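Protocol step 4 of 6: structure prediction from sequence.
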Amino acid sequence: MKLRKIFSKRKMVIGLLAGVYLFALVLNIFAEDEVIDPRKNIIAIHDSSSEQYDKNCLECHADILSAKSLDPTIAPAAHVAMFDFAPGKPGDDKQCIFCHRTVDLVQGSAGNIRKQVDATLCAMCHGQSPPRNASSGPVKQFYQAGPSPDDGVLLYDLACAACHKDLANSKVGGESANEIQKKIDDDKGGMLPLRVLSTVEIDSIASALGGDPSGGGGGDPNGGGIDLSITKAEWKADNSELKVEGLASADSVVMIRNADSLEELGSATTDEEGKWKFLLQDPAGVPCRVQAESGSQFRENDVQNAPDDCVAGSPVENIDLSITKAEWKADKSELKVEGLASADSVVMIRNADSEKELGSATTDEDGKWKFLLQDPAEVPCSVRAKSGSQFLENDVKNAPDDCV
């Protein structure tokens, strides 16, 4: 009797094992593409200190780029909306770890992932202090207060540590406020979104790093000492002309916008004395106010003699930024870059590697833009185009072997 029971139990166990094996075999046949590589440690690939760390976050998490909120009134979804405002180059894991500093798959598990985003980081831009000047418009306040602008240690941890290591082991120790500001203005390593930092905050970060706060990190990052100003903003009805003038750092570019709609009107380049002048003939609508931007500085002014029907304007139809051509023509000693962007907007062109500014182009009513540079001192190997909060890079076709 005992032997019969033992054999019966063995048959049942063998049957169960065979069933599990067949089930696994079926899964393997119908889902070959979804088999997890057993050589990958799911904890290690999320640990930046591990040799197995996989910095390509979007290789597995690309679905967030198309994710939609369950609330139809919220568009776009949080991740999609935040990518343009997270430091780092497009597709770089630094954009992800700016918010997700740790991914705890051991103690907190993925179910706790939202809590792993420090709300203090959110409050840096969405808190009460200080007012933010982002080119996309006013930042909404979701928190009663943000971090103190005088707390350089906390601000460094929030804004810088994700890329430059913790303060004690920082790769940028000793940097001055002017050096930090210049890197932001030049979009070094994708730092442009950090222009939301106020001059006081940048000074505090520099102090925490042991650098020179310079008494005004947001002055002239190039040492020219000229703050952005608008000395004239006037509508001349007899000439049907908008005239805006002012001062900024020498040999810099000043962007001009409708201050209400933030529609880009054009740009002006300062001379060696820092003076700039912007003229716009026969605008579709005369703005009531204008905004000037240079580096991380913004200024606004009422337009003198603006007509009673001056308009706040409306944002132009959005067209995704694209580069359709980036080519070096040796026979003409000419760099040619073309593409598409929103109609009547300004596209800034830089050397993608050195971040050196090459110039700008304005799109036509169809969104087409063209940039030509004759006899450049150096031919870039690749170029970067920027329009609004969008960035795009492209290799330069036929670039010489000594391109930079």
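Step 5 (inspection) to follow. The two ends are 87 Å apart (CA to CA).
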